[in-house]
Specification:
The complex is a heterodimer.
Chain A: E1 4-7, E2 10-13, E3 19-25, E4 30-38, E5 44-51, E6 57-58, E7 67-73, E8 76-81, E9 90-98, E10 106-108, E11 112-116
Parallel strand pairs in A: 2-11
Antiparallel strand pairs in A: 1-3, 3-8, 4-5, 4-9, 5-6, 7-8, 9-10, 9-11
Chain B: E1 3-5, E2 10-14, E3 19-21, E4 24-26, E5 31-38, E6 45-50, E7 56-58, E8 64-68, E9 73-78, E10 87-95, E11 105-106, E12 110-115
Parallel strand pairs in B: 2-12
Antiparallel strand pairs in B: 1-4, 3-9, 5-6, 5-10, 7-8, 8-9, 10-11, 10-12
Classes of the chains: A mainly beta, B mainly beta.
């Protein structure tokens, strides 16, 4: 089946530093990848949609300069949290949609737990 | 704004009990509907989906869901739960047709605990 990986699975960083999270589709090509944020006991909130070779589309209220997204290839998208602050601590999940096959199914990565101290 | 409501936040059942998790959405147009499951320590997995056709859809592991358009609902059911069904369940909606954005709108999730 379609597998999506994320790296790292967890990261602790100091306030003011930047953190990069990778999302990879391991056995399929993904034209579109999505980045979500999940707060404890809450739903997944879509942050941005990333299309290969073009700029990401951010949801309302998401700071594009803080959450930099790059989708340089059909198998890799990265999310960089710049100048992280404690309020950025969260669980970040990516998903990927196949180039071919079912039009709407997204495959999810295992998530990255970010803690900013 | 579109939203998805899951009224049951935490459900506790004994093995072999029947399960029904509610999901209601607010959107007047055509929708694609999904149920995802997240087992402890694992990533989200698709349980089942509805795009069109028979409103009663069957998914993996004995789960099924029924789309009732008039009630804007897509409830998840399983006649007999097992301990291994302990997980978090998320309902999700995607506006379809000419308003399709490929964006999933998730409910807040329902935590299911099944005791042997």
């Amino acid at each position: 089946g379609a597998v999506v990986s994320q790296h790292p699975s967890w990261v602790i960083c100091k306030s003011g530093t930047s953190v990069k999270i990778e999302c990879r589709s391991l056995d399929f090509q993904a034209t579109t990848m999505f980045w979500y944020r999940q707060f404890p006991k809450q739903s997944l909130m879509l942050m941005a949609t990333s299309n290969e070779g073009s700029k990401a589309t951010y949801e309302q209220g998401v700071e594009k300069d803080k959450f930099l997204i790059n989708h340089a290839s059909l198998t890799l998208s990265t999310l960089t949290v710049t100048s992280a602050h404690p309020e950025d601590s969260s669980f970040y999940i990516c998903s990927a949609r196949e180039l071919a096959g079912g039009p709407y199914e997204q495959y999810f990565g295992p998530g990255t737990r970010l803690t900013v101290t | 704004a579109q939203s998805v409501s899951q009224h049951n936040h935490h459900v506790i059942l004994s093995e072999a009990a029947s399960l029904e998790l509610g999901c209601n959405y607010s959107y007047g147009g055509t929708v694609n509907l999904f149920w995802y499951v997240q087992y402890p320590g694992q990533h989200l997995q698709l349980l089942l989906k509805y795009f069109s056709g028979d409103p009663l859809v069957k998914g993996i592991k004995g789960f099924e869901a029924e789309f009732i358009k008039s009630k804007f609902s897509f409830n998840l059911r399983k006649p007999s739960v097992q301990w291994s069904d302990t997980a978090e369940y998320f309902c999700a909606v995607m506006p379809a047709g000419i308003y399709n954005t490929d964006k999933l709108i998730f409910g807040t999730g329902t935590r299911l605990q099944v005791f042997p």
